[in-house]
Amino acid sequence: MTNFNTIRQYNFPTTIRFGAGAINELADHLVAQNLHNPLIVTDPTVIQLDFFKKIKDKLFRKNLWCEVFSDIHKNPVKSDVLKGGAIYKATQRDCIVGIGGGAAMDVARAIALRIHHHRDLFDYDDLIGGDKYVTGEVPYFITVPTTSGTGSEVGRSAIISEDDTHRKRILFSPKLLAKIVFADPMLTMELPPFITAATGMDALTHNMEAFIAKDFHPLCEGIALQGMGLINQSIETATNKPDLESRSKMMIASLMGAVAFQKGLGVVHSLAHPLSTLLDTHHGLANAVNLPYGMRFNISGFEDRFKKMARMMDLQNESGEALVEHLFQLNERIGLPTQLRDIDVKQEHLEPLADLAIADFAHPNNPKPVSREDFLNLYKEAL
Ligand SMILES: NC(=O)c1ccc[n+]([C@@H]2O[C@H](COP(=O)([O-])OP(=O)(O)OC[C@H]3O[C@@H](n4cnc5c(N)ncnc54)[C@H](O)[C@@H]3O)[C@@H](O)[C@H]2O)c1
Ligand SMILES: [Fe+2]
């Protein structure tokens, strides 16, 4: 029987202190690194939560002079990063701690990039080869996830949108990997059901898309299979009747999803990103709704992959269709919608959505090619 009350250390892909109470080690860790002036980056909701106040109090008690930056958008934009960077410099910080969901951790990572890299932020966009400019130092950077979804805590990229168009851009460099992660499932205990479900389905999407993404990457595939199994076992309990075991499994599995998607993502993320761009839809929710449709698109020609996933999810019927049906039902059981119309998508949005989807960065790794017409058809199906 696994004991979820102990803290474990994992050293892959970075140092991870994982377990209930791991957050209590943050202050001593900073002191041990001789860091005393952290910039804490979080969001406008998390800053008001009890656990956040406790973390801050604990840091102050150790004579750590914290500055908190929380003025960020739900889908963070470049100006958020520039503001945070200016505060870092004006208040003479010596390290950055991102505490929150993917949004806060991504902004924290982008600020870390910003400090010693002064080109236009989007010059560092990975898709235009911007990582070659990431040659300077990056401040000591720590992540503390408070949702179990994006896995951004172990990511090397930050997804930041343009202020005017809301187009998502990816800033990437291996230098942006956190030096240490404090992954404490207790911080997610109060996460409301809807956010638990939506972020959890993002994590499931990462594991599933990474598993079937093209290319030979058995390392990531092994992690992805294990990750999807853990989520399948625990997402319902974590959403509807959370306990330490389900919260712990969701937290480690979301982190695994982000490790796995080094291999690539696919059609589902390219269907989801335009919804955030156009309608400011939460990233996880956008993935959750599109997941069954995008997976159905991928079945033919990849039946063996679907069989492996169905087996991992303990389905009796191991066909791709049965797995897709399972995903629809899973969404329903955790209180998420199964159609785009339920998340304010209208007929007139479909063409602009398809334009954005075909330009998205995720689908080139999909196991089969996706055309603009395919995207349009998938949106029509899901409407
Ligand atoms: N870097 C990456 O690899 C990567 C991957 C996928 C997505 N993303 C990005 O991550 C963002 C989405 O992240 P997310 O899904 O974690 O959502 P989020 O960061 O927007 O958090 C969702 C909501 O939950 C609240 N919240 C966070 N922790 C809480 C807690 N413990 N209790 C109560 N409420 C809490 C937040 O305030 C917010 O309102 C998007 O910007 C997306 O583009 C990044
Ligand atoms: Fe995602």
Notes on the protein architecture:
With 383 residues, the chain is of the alpha/beta class. The protein has 13 helices and 9 strands. A 7-stranded mixed sheet has the order 1-2-9-6-5-3-4, covered by helices on one side. It has a two-stranded antiparallel sheet with strand order 7-8.
Percent helix, as a range, is 40-55%
Largest sheet: 7 strands, mixed
What are the secondary-structure elements, in order, as H or E?
Answer: EEHEHEHEHEEEEHHHHHHHHH
Q: Which kinds of small molecule does this entry bind, naming each only once?
A: nicotinamide-adenine-dinucleotide, fe (ii) ion
Beta content comes to: 5-15%
Flag low-confidence runs: none
Q: Measured on Cα atoms, how large is the radius of gyration?
A: 20 Å
Number of helices: 13
Global shape: globular
Mean of residue pLDDT values = 97
Name the structural class.
Answer: alpha/beta
What's the arrangement of strands in the largest beta sheet? 1-2-9-6-5-3-4
Would you count the extended β strands for me?
Answer: 9
Distance between the termini: 44 Å
